[in-house]
Structures
1.
Amino acid sequence: MENDERHAVHLVTNGMKHIRVLMFGWEFPPHNSGGLGTACYGLAKSLTRANVAITFVLPKKLDGLDHDFLKIVFANIRNIKFRSIKTLVHPYITADIYDEYLRTAPEHELYGLNLFDEVRRYGLQARIIASEEHFDVIHAHDWLSFRAGIEAKNVSGKPLIVHVHATEFDRTGGHPNQYIYDEERRGLHAADCIIAVSQYTKNVIVEHYGIEESKIMVVHNGIDPSEHRRALPLALSHVRAEGKKIVLFVGRLTIQKGADYFIKVAKRVLEFDPNVLFVISGAGDMEHQIIRLAADIGLGDKVLFAGFVRGEELMKLYRAADLYVMPSVSEPFGLTALEALSNGTPILVSKQSGVSEVLTHVLKSDFWDVDDMADKILNVVGSRGLHDTLGELGSKDVEHVTWESAAGKCTQIYQNLLST
Amino acid sequence: MASICFYFQVHQPYRIKKYRVFDVGNDHEYFNDRSDRDINNEKILHKVAKKCYLPTNKLLLELLNTHPEFKVAFSFSGVFLDQLEEFSPETLESFQKLVKTGRVEILDETYYHSLAFLYSKKEFVRQVELHRAKVKKLFGVTPQVFRDTELIYNNELAKFIEDMGYKAILAEGADHLLGWRSPNFLYNAPNVTTIKTLLKNYKLSDDIAFRFSSRSWAEWPLTSEKFARWVDGVNGNGNVVNLFMDYETFGEHQWEDTGIFDFMRALPGELLKHPDNDFVTPSEAAKRYPSVGEFDAHNFISWADVERDLSAWLSNSMQYEAIGNIYALEDDVMASGDAKLIEDWSRLQTSDHFYYMCTKWFADGDVHKYFNPYDTPYEAFIAYNNVLHDLRLRIEAAKKKKPAVKKVAVAKKKSTTAKNAKTVKKVVVKKLPAKTKKH
């Protein structure tokens, strides 16, 4: 009996070693503009620790900078080979912004003429890469890489997994661009298996893309808490010294992230407690609109725009905050919520988020329920007991949400695909 | 001889409605939810009355009529009795009918099912006095035995209760204090002279209260014959088997379709088949059986959760903050002389409010979640915390009113203060009539 078990374990370990994955993504830290790059990095790192060999294909090549970037990643992650092809595509692009970018980008960076061309070119490149590389499974992250994944599958005949970190419905607040929607739909239908970052996202895929539930596996994102355990000074010490409470928003300033709701909530909170400062970190297409909104309703000096912040600066900001608020209109996962918790900061997240599925000791509201959010914020800034309980138990909660667990589920999915 | 001592706890709190920060200063009604949620007190009371109180009372009356030996004891929280008067007089009548048989004993507890003993002895005494008066008024009897909220107990409480004139006090038969000893005897706290401690036989009690319908339990299904055999086993090595449980066990925690009523209907008959078995009430047990040794509880114990301690109500900083805040208002609230304010403040002391804020969800999670009408402990805290803000505003308003009165009639104010002081003194000194008669 004991021998049998040992034998089985040995086989599994051996099997895992032999899985080679051709992975298509489009951003990787530190060249990421959002959670997608962080997620690809965290997942890939844990997969390689589980002895999965990954060839990570990136669509963009940034002259000069990417050399540094590659070095850093190679230093930290074994078993990953980087391939990169030249493109303008980045994960959060919309057709309008792409046109703007084409008009203003330096001549030598321009390859394609529009988004269609970029995606098609990435697909063509994928064919060549797929015929050169040796792999067992194809794993493509989000819509821009779906075509590349399909092309690689066509060339190699290997199974395709598409990993959905966000859909066009999330990004646009329910008003999808038809071209992007079609690309997503094509990838989802071509895939042998779909990974969704939450049950919330799985539901969106079933409802809006006509996919049967059994084809979609939920693999929640994770976090490496040790990266957030360093001793760091808090940001905004002068504000804290005045005895002010800080409520923080971190995210792209887009319709998806609900920054406008954050401003509305701020107004409601300040009616009851003027001693609160609202800090917004992030950039995006709604930036000017949000700044104007804050000024228009008279919150000019109560809302601080910190710009796009990353790394240690972001950690200091999380720690300075009494509460982190994520009022997303539609959030497939919401990694920043895990980051805030790992820094010991209590969080209030919208119920329309994937992260709310995996956390217990957090506050949850509907994104549109401004009064409910205000009620919760006022209580956290007004009660040490509530603040401390949420901070303490929330940071323990997040310890169970790991990339190891996500990688384990992905490995299982690879094995299942390969054994059928 | 094995005497069986049944005691049923009957309690319903006044749950706080969804009370938001915007309600502070505008809405002074905290307990009047009218929604379909489980914080609608009237709805809950009707539901439990229908499923448990009325059918179980009917069954007990039937058993009392069939078996002249059968006896039970109840402890009703004052807030439960208030709700019966407010929402379901017919249920109150059915309890009164039981007590009239003369074989149903009533125990005393804190009126508001509170943790007052831990925070204010003065408030504790006030609540016990209120409870005793309420029981006297509704049932015409004066309890001789005390049990604190959720069987909270320690040596100090035993002594305090002895000084208030009670003959016996109930506690959990906690293994870590009993060691090899059996809960089926009476004990005494090391620091008392006469009061006896009755210990819950938690194994046999929980076989009925918790495990009865559990199909994963090796003893399922539990029949009255089988249970009576286990009790018979105590003969020769115990005096009394204390079966203490929530009354809601019958029909509410264990639904009718589990067979709990049929089990209970047959149980007295089965128990009485053994010639050495009989039934006693807690005060009879205290009268009949001697204490066999010391039960030494330095730290508080209770019957809650696997820990059998106070952690269900007091383990996270929210709970400590909330309970600290409510007792910090005691002097101001009492000084206000405002009956409605005092009542609301008192109802906010009910232990359930702090139980709802409990976050130790991992070991006992299911039980807490089952008994929590709020979605999360945080929601429970926020409603409570907002209500406290409103209560403070009312206290401030009451304070502002007072000086105006003072200016108009200084003499009147003086006499009020004297009267208040007298009341407090009287409350502390007053003993049970039984105590003075004793010896």
2.
Amino acid sequence: MPPTTNELQRALVLLLVLGVFAYIGYRRGFWGEVLKLIVLIVGYAISRPELLGGWVIRSINVGYFLIQFIRGGGLSALFAEGGPSAERLLSAFEATGARGPLIRAEQGEGLLFVLMLLLLIVAFAMAGRIKRKASKIAGLLMGAANGLVIAYIFRPYLSGKPLLPPTPETAGTLDVLSTILGAALDVVVTPLRWLATAAGLWMVPVVIVAVVLILLRSLRG
Amino acid sequence: MGPIEVLWFAVVLFFIFVALVRGYPRELGVTTVIFAALFLIHFFFGRYFDSLLKPLLDILNISPTARGLEHFKASFYSLVFLLIVFSGYAGQTFAFQGKERKGTDGFVLNLLVGLLNGYLVAGSLWYFQHAFNYPIADFKGPDGRPLFFTMPLSPLAMQLVKILPLAVVPDILWGALLMLMLLARVRR
């Protein structure tokens, strides 16, 4: 089956993402990329309610309830002179309960996404400060791995919806853009499936060329 | 024997070991020879083999069965390919000049070239079987079990078949890669 233009686009866009991150890894070194990968994985787990996300939201809400409880006179009711006052405690609980949780279920996903973004920004800033020396090739490979994980993480948030409403004037341009974007996002359903299926047949020759170029450039003198 | 993909992985593994021992400057010479073989087979044989074979069979007055012809073609392609690849290892080799990197970098590069060569060789041999309906699967032992691999293909094998080198790489790219390698070799 000959590779199609669509597959070529998918392969090239994904390769571009991998290439950029591999280059960053090559320049910044291995250890910074390891830190990034760890934060990426933790960030991803936090962004998913079924993994760490649900626990994070619950913890924030519990913390918020505690603060409200204290502010509503809960602590002073507990340690009141002559023993805890049941009446004041009850009113503190009522006041806390009336406020409701800080993060509601429908807000959870958006907040977790922002939290993940913050984590990634901090990780990227910290990675640049790590000066420990290591193999540049290892940095390149780790950077490419980070690119693959990032492409995988961000896919659900960019689910191929059109960026602009198509009009007859812009239809042609939007078609091209949406084809490229859609193809780029489709291809990273999961890194392993991408490797195992024929989603990116053009990736094979592109990877062969890339490996050959890396090997040729690695010869000294 | 087990599934064909196990055999395939074993051949790839073998090439990785060879590359780790020989080093990537030498293995790049083999890669060049493999590119030449694939270009030759894909470009020339793919176009002209059948039209040359038919008059030859007429002259020799041989009329093989369809399956016999598949056996012959798969064996011929595999043999020519292996002979060319072997020439990359034997005698005066086509090794690239230059010092190889040491340590982790060197190891990773050796691994890469081993993987590449293994994928190209094992993948091409598999493709010759696939293109001619797995004639080698006809060979069975005295107990009636297949000598080389079992058929039908497993789901994993069916996925792998789609990414074999000759299935996905256009013939002109083998030529381009060959030119690139020759240029890089001459520049050094």
